[in-house]
Specification:
The chain is α/β, with parallel strands linked by helices and about 350 residues long. Helix 8 links the parallel strand 13 and strand 14. The chain is globular and about 60 Å long.
């Protein structure tokens, strides 16, 4: 089969490798689309790849091409989304159902060959079926959609309250939609790009706040009559928005950091004291799994994409590249600000 194989830093090649075969309890998936994740970029353009040669890709959709011995639920022809985490199922965290915290996990598309290829083999539980009414493009967005939902599951979320989403990227848009699906009274998206705020409104946000505006904090707090937001989800991993979360939180709020920071972060005493004086709860969110594996996050993503309540906007996709041009796709990331949305790799082209 053909695959995009990483051989060294800045060296990803379209070449032929051995087609995998499903073993006991596994399925072979004929890959349709794979999204390039932010974590893939330093594995190709930097020094973060675990080993060479390697086949990355973990946000994928496709159809079941073959089933291995002992597969009982899936059948050939099923449309599926890939679940990349392969937990050990034996450690204390796994026994508790906290698979994202497994210390002995494998991961499809980083620690073992992934979906930047025509075919990929995964355990049966790592392929979530979806209906024909759900597109393969949507299937490739299951993973980021479940990451967003896991953030809501990390707090005692209740409907009827106010929600601030800091960062209008793909994860942020899904967080906002999940909050709305589960009954938020108001959902407000914060970003520096007016087009992202407009997208948020199209997808159902109550309001959008451009944080470049000098009076943005006053506008934001006015939406809550000055009390702040009951739930604040930081999805950008940006120093500015991580500090902003502390300012926007209401008394007794729940603040969840979903975004992954890339720079060192420090708080002034006044900034940090917000948590003491407001007595808000701060937590983080990592990946997208719960018991029984892979969790409600994946089940609900399939359901709400099917019903249309979890909306998919074409602007989520920046560009599509055939697998044969995967090197060109990663070149775009070398110029900051060039890629505005998700790049999908089409393994059937």
């Amino acid at each position: 089969m053909k695959a995009g194989v990483v051989h060294a830093r800045e060296d990803i090649r379209y070449e032929e490798i051995k087609k995998p075969e499903p073993g006991k309890g596994q399925v072979l998936i004929k890959v349709k689309y794979t999204g390039i994740c932010g974590s893939d970029v330093p594995r190709v353009n930097g020094d973060a790849c675990h080993f060479f040669p390697n086949v990355l890709g973990h946000e994928f959709s496709g159809t079941v091409a073959e089933i291995g011995e002992g597969v009982t639920v899936l059948k050939t022809g099923d449309r599926v989304a890939g679940v990349p985490l392969v937990p050990c199922m034996e450690c204390e965290d796994c026994r508790r159902g906290d698979y994202s915290l497994c210390k002995h996990y494998s991961f499809i598309g980083s620690r073992e060959f992934g979906s930047f290829a025509e075919y990929v083999v995964v355990p049966e539980k790592n392929a979530v079926p979806f209906e024909d009414s759900v597109s393969f493009e949507q299937g490739a967005f299951f993973e980021p959609a479940t990451v967003a939902l896991h953030g809501l599951k990390r707090v005692p979320y209740e409907g009827g309250k106010t929600v601030a989403v800091l960062g209008g990227g793909t994860i942020g848009m899904f967080v906002m939609q999940w909050a709305k699906i589960f009954g938020a009274a108001k959902t407000v998206v914060f970003d520096i790009a007016d087009e992202r705020l407009a997208l948020g409104k199209r997808l159902g946000a109550t309001a959008g706040i451009n944080t470049k505006e000098a009076d943005f904090m006053e506008k934001a707090l006015a939406l809550t009559k000055g009390r702040g937001f009951d739930y604040v989800f930081e999805t950008a991993g940006n120093t500015v928005t991580m500090k902003m979360a502390f300012e926007l939180a209401a008394n007794k709020a729940h603040v969840c950091f979903v975004g992954t920071p890339t720079k060192e972060l420090s708080f002034t005493v006044r900034e940090w004291e917000n948590m003491n004086r407001k007595e808000f709860t701060l937590t983080g969110s990592w990946m997208s799994y719960s018991a029984p594996f892979p969790g409600k996050e994946w089940e609900l993503a399939a359901h709400y994409f099917k019903t249309g309540e979890l909306k998919f906007d074409e602007s989520f996709i920046f560009r599509k590249f055939p697998l044969s041009r995967i090197g060109e796709a990663f070149e775009l990331y070398k110029t900051p600000g060039t890629v505005k949305g998700k790049i999908l790799i089409d393994s059937e082209c």
